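CORE FACILITY INTAKE
Project code: CF-77B
Contact: R.S. (postdoc)
Sample description: multi-component assembly, two entities in total
Requested service: structural model of the whole complex
Turnaround: standard
Below are the sequence entries exactly as provided by the requester. Do not edit them.
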Amino acid sequence: MVNTLVTPSGGRVLFGGEDVTALKPSTLRRRVGYVFQGIGLFPHFTVGENIAIGPRLAGEKLPHARVTELLSLVELEPEMASRMPDELSGGQRQRVGVARALAGDPELLIMDEPFGALDPITRDALGEKVRELHEKLGLTTIMVTHDMAEALLLADRVLVMSFGELVADNSPHELLAGAGGDIAQGLVAVPRQQAERLAAMEKSGAGS
Amino acid sequence: MNEIWTILLGLGDKFASHIVLSASAIGLGMLVALPLAVWASRSQNVARIALGFASLVQTIPALALLALFFPILLSLRAVFGEDLPTLGFLPALLALALYALLPILRNAVTAQANLDPGVLEAADGVGMTSWQKLTLVEAPLSAPFVMAGIRTASVWTIGAATLATTIGQPSLGDPIFAGLQTQNWALVLAGCIASAGLALVVDALLGIVENGFAKRNRWQYGAGIAAVAMGLSGALIYQSGGDDEDTIIIASKQFSEQYILAQLIGSQLEKAGYSVEYRDGLGSAVVHSAVASSSIDISVDYTGTIWTNELSRTDNPGREVMYETIVEWERSNTGVRVLGRLGFENAYAFAMREDRAAELGVSSLEELVRFGPQLTVGGDPEFFERPEWIAVRDAYGMRFRETRNFSPTFMYNALRSGEADVISAYTSDGRIAADRLVVLEDPRGALPSYDAMLMMSPRIAEDAGIARALEPLIGAISVEAMREANFAVDREGEGKLSPKDAAAELAESIGL
């Protein structure tokens, strides 16, 4: 809704004080970095061309040095720039997806279940990386996830949605301390119990 | 084999116009199908309607679709004026373009529908406008599939373009139709080899382009496109070089007699110093309109045909009145000049094998009536729709056990093999004498006369030189002479002649 890929049925979304529906979609979207589960690299462009697409649409040419810089931000080798997307692993592709989202120096980064299709190790590493970039580049990031552990570990502020209603708006610490109501606590309980069960298993395993 | 080779070498102009026609039709098809496919990818309803329409068109036989454009264009003259051509290039182009629509459209729509939704979401997500999305993402990703559709369309179109012959557009169908009618298999083969060869070459070249698109190899698809463009411009240059305003165009319908007479007329005109061009194998229905609109200049038509098809008359006032009425009608309605009658009739008549007729004791239609319910009658494809059949049926109360349609050539074979007991023969047909057929008498005069007439288009109607060159043919060809010439072309094996040679023999026998 923020980048108007979905139109709100009611209410307004303000971006920098302006109603997003009043902005030209293509202009708005170039100011918003977008990373999503489907990744959506353009298969007929090289990695470098994929990263440079946003500025290219705005009529600018992204310098090669900047492509290299963006690749190194997501921990990819500069040589990757000339590869085609189908030569890359899933994790590498989503790294390129992140680099592409950052290429236009966006004011906002939207991540819609960005790591949903990745294996847990890649997922964890990439999550950490994105949080690091968030700090380093001073980004505003909105990330959508079903994984409460991911939300608690990466976010400064967690909003819980249930059936289209906002049911909690707290910091991870507050949520872990029991704030936010039943639904939010139900979600927090899942990773907490998993962690406890794993710890118990470890203990009993050590005892036998 | 040598013969086929010689024919192939003589097909240059047909080949060029075949290429120009096919390429134009595919081009027009793309011009319509590609934007339509883009629209269809944005709207389910458009996709359904467009694909439904294209599929529907595909179910119409190509031959019928081509012929249908004649009345359509004729009625459109009300809008675009009398100069709108109703025969030749335009209707052929339109029909073939419609035919090319489906494969291009279907592939383009399918390609669009099968694009990775993630890629499309990303295209919107990075801020592409709808046009950028189309040109940067959708078009390049769909290109190989769209190209595959264009390839299919090209092969179909090149094949179907041979049928353009029937509506007066020169194509590689000319030798095929002429050969089929005169049972000259070398001609048929040459036409088929040329059009199949063309289809294969185009398919291979477009295959290179398709492959180039798939591999995103600019050199490869560039080279493929360049090769196609070169072939096309070669054909265009060849065609524009051969055009000549002063050429007299002689038409013939799809049977041997017409081919022979066209050659006879052509040689008379050439002797008088005119340059001529033959437009062979036109559909019977279009010849008159073609001559009336000066799309062609000279044709041979028959009084009975004009009487029913053009004057829409069903009565039978007798041979002379019919002819006089037609001459006057043409002069005042179409501007076509009827130069005169050639001297013979090519009328419909019922014919039986001699032995079969003797067995039943039948020599006239009147005597045939009571055996009708046990007999199978064969007719040419239009006969049972024609007023002649209806007239005979009503005048005699004629009923047959079964009616079957055959192409004229196969009708005689059917009679020989016993698949038909009676056929609707043509009185000038050489096979009547050769097969020793009995032509049944028509005591009630139900069958109208079919005098062969020489028709001149309004363009050359006043040309005294042409009239003078053709004058010797008027009243000069007896039905026996025509039968002999027809048989020389229709027969198998020893003594079989090409229409040109038969025309030369005919000319000699009538003292020209």
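Facility notes:
- Chain A touches chain B at residues 3, 5, 25-30, 34, 36, 38-44, 53-54, 57-58, 100 (CB under 8 Å).
- The two ends of chain A are 54 Å apart (CA to CA).
Invoice: internal transfer
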